[in-house]
Amino acid sequence: MKKTVTKSILFTILTCFGTLSTNAQSISAGFGHSNFLCSGGTAQAVGFNTSGQLGDGTIINKSTSVQVAGIEGIIGLATGSLHSVFLKNDGTVWAVGKNDLGQLGDGTLINKSTPVQVAGLTGIIKVAVGSWHSLFLKNDGTVWAVGTNPNGQLGDGTLVSKSTPVQVLGLTGIIGIAAGYDHSLFLKNDGTVWGVGRNNFGQLGDGTTISKSIAVQIPSLTNIIAVTAGGEHSNFLKNNGTVQAVGRNNYGQLGDGTLVNKNTPILIPNLTGITAVAGGSEFSLFLKSDATAMAVGRNNYGQLGDGTIIDKNTPIQIASGLTDINSLSAGYNHSVFLKNDGTVWAVGRNSFGQLGDGTSVDRSTPINTTIVCNVLLELAENIREDNIIISPNPCKEILTIELTELQKYNTVAEIFNLQGQLLQSTTLSTLKTNILIDYLPNGIYLVQVKSANKILVKKIIKN
C-alpha cells in the first residue's frame, strides 16, 4: 500500500555533550508551573504537573524545563492554575492540563497531558488565562471565553460553565485581555477598560462590589494601554507610564501604602516610567523604562525578589543585580523575568520546581533558570526519518542525502545557519546526492529537505 505523506514540519532534536541555546521569547507563570516560548516556535515548561499542565505527556513534576509535546509554530502562551494555553501562528489555540471545568475548551471535561485544539477558534491573536477559565481575542476585536463561570467571568450573560468557547457579549474593538481568579478585563481601542465576573473586592473597578455577567465599563479610566488581572485585584497602565490599581489590598498589592480594598481605581504613588505590568495572586510586578523591575504586595515566599520575605505596600526595587529585563510574569507565589539576552530569571516559591533551577528551594533573590529553550544535541552517525537518510553526522567535507523513494516532484535540500540565513540550496534529482560543505565553518546547521508535500528539518554538526 502506498504511503500517504501529509504536509507538516518536523523538527528532530539530537543529543550530545553540550546544549544549543535558542533563547526564550516569552514567559508566563501560573500557580505552580511556568511556561516559556522559544525562538523556534516551540514551548517548554517546568514545575507542577499533576494534571499534565506541562504538556510533556506525563503527570510528573519537573524542576528543569521540558519540551511541550506535539506543538510547533507557537507565537503566544498563557498559564493558569493547572492548565496552559498556546496560540499558534495559524490563529488556532491549543491547551493542556486540568479540564474539570472545561477550561481547555475541547468540549470535554477530561484532563490532557499533551495539548489539544480548542474547538471552533480561528483568527485568534491573543490569549489570557485565569485560574479556571480562558480568554481568546480574535482579529475582529471580539473576545471568546471558556471554562468555569459561577461569577459570570465568561461574560456571556450566564453563570453556566462552558467546555467550548462562547462569545463575550457586547464587546467590540478589543485590543487587550486579562484574566484573574474569577474576573476578566478587556481593553478597547479607545483606551477604555471593561470588566466582568466576580467583584467582591471591587476588582472590576466600577464603584461597586457586585459581580457582573455582562461586561461593564470602568468609568474613571482613560488612555489605558495595557491591563493585567491579579488574583482579586486589577492593574491598568496609562500612556504616560503611570499605573492605577483596584480591588483587594490585604497584602498591599495595590501599592498605595495602605491595606484597604478599593472599588474604584487609585493611582499608585511614586511609580513612573512603567512600560509593563504583571499581576500575581496577591502581588504585582512593574517593568520600568530603564529595564529594571519593581514589585509590591505579598512576599511570603520571596516573590518580590528583594531578598526578604516581608510584605510591601509600596513598590520596591527588585534585587539590583536584575537588569536589562525585557518582560515579566507573575504567578501565584513566584515571579519570572525574561532578559534581553534570552535568559530567564525567577524568584519566589519553588516547592514544585517552578523556578526551573533544578531544585525545590524557595528564592528571595532571582536566580537563572537553567536549560530554558536549550536544545540537547546528540551525535548520530546517520539520521533517518520519513524515507530520508542524512549522513554522516557529524560531517566534515561532504553531506550525503539519500531518498529511498523519489518524490513526485524535485526535492530541494537547503542548509541554514542558526540565525536562519540560507547558505546553500541543492536540487535532489536522484535518490542519492552528495553535497560539498567543506567551505562551512565548524558548527551546527539546519538541513531542510523540502518536497512538494513535506518539509523535514534536521540539525547537523560540522567539524
Keywords:
463 residues; mainly beta; five-stranded mixed beta sheet; four-stranded antiparallel beta sheet; 39 strands; 0% helix; globular; disordered N terminus; repeat; signal; T9SS type A sorting domain-containing protein
Can you describe what's shown?
The structure is a single chain. Strand 11 (124-129) and strand 12 (133-138) form a beta hairpin. The chain has strands at 9-11, 19-21, 24-29, 33-38, 43-47, 62-67, 74-79, 83-88, 93-97, 112-117, 124-129, 133-138, 143-147, 162-167, 174-179, 183-188, 193-197, 212-217, 224-229, 233-238, 243-247, 262-267, 274-279, 283-288, 293-297, 312-317, 325-330, 334-339, 344-348, 363-368, 374-376, 383-385, 388-391, 398-403, 411-416, 422-428, 432-436, 443-450, 455-462. The protein contains no helices and 39 strands. The model is unreliable at 1-22 and 375-384 (pLDDT under 50). Helix content is 0%, strand content 47%. A 5-stranded mixed beta sheet has the order 1-39-38-35-36, with no helix packed on it. Strands 3-4-5-6 form a 4-stranded antiparallel beta sheet, with no helix packed on it. Strands 7-8-9-10 form a 4-stranded antiparallel beta sheet, with no helix packed on it. It is mainly β and 463 residues long. It holds the Pfam family WD40_RLD. Keywords: Guanine-nucleotide releasing factor, Repeat, Signal. Residues 70-369 form the RCC1-like domain. Residues 390-461 form the Secretion system C-terminal sorting domain. It comes from Flavobacterium paronense.
How would you summarize this macromolecular structure in one to three sentences?
The chain is 0% helix and 47% strand.
